[in-house]
């Protein structure tokens, strides 16, 4: 009985994930959007929050070196380093629409 309890969810999951191809592009788009939203909420957004926090910590930790790098012209090291370490993960996590990865059904 324990084997059935363990195997049944796996069989159901395999049956759902092996659905035939969509009949038209709209069906494919709807299914892809649902998977994108689920993947975004469960995996990508938490990783993005962690990346934003880690980037903030790295930005604060490297600020003395960034200050030294901003001495020569063009004096924009803080802007550039902040945009890379904090801005990009922040945008990807909090500004980007939910489930938007830029891919389409083929």
Describe what is shown at a glance.
The chain is an all-alpha fold. It has helices spanning 2-17, 25-61, 63-69, 77-95.
Radius of gyration: 22 Å
Total beta strands? 0
Q: Please report the number of helical segments.
A: 4
Reported for the largest beta sheet, the result is:
none
What is the average of the pLDDT values? 80
Query: Which structural class is indicated by helix and strand composition?
Result: mainly alpha
Strand content: under 5%
Molecular structure report:
75% of the residues lie in helices and 0% in strands. The chain has one domain (23-106). The radius of gyration is 22 Å and the shape is elongated. It has helices at 2-17, 25-61, 63-69, 77-95. The mean pLDDT is 80. It is built from four helices and no strands. Helix 2 (25-61) packs antiparallel against helix 4. The chain is mainly α and 106 residues long.
Which key terms come to mind for this protein?
0% strand; mainly alpha; 75% helix; 4 helices; 106 residues
Give the arrangement of secondary structure elements.
Blueprint: H1 2-17, H2 25-61, H3 63-69, H4 77-95
């Amino acid at each position: 009985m324990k084997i059935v309890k363990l195997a049944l969810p796996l069989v159901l999951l395999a049956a759902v994930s092996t659905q035939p191809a969509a009949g038209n592009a709209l069906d494919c788009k709807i299914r892809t959007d649902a998977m994108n939203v689920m993947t975004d909420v469960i995996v990508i957004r938490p990783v993005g929050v962690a990346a934003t926090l880690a980037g903030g910590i790295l930005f604060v930790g490297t600020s003395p070196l960034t200050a030294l790098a901003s001495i020569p012209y063009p004096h924009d090291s803080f802007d550039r380093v902040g945009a890379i370490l904090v801005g990009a993960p922040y945008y990807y996590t909090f500004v980007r629409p939910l489930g938007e990865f830029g891919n389409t059904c083929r």
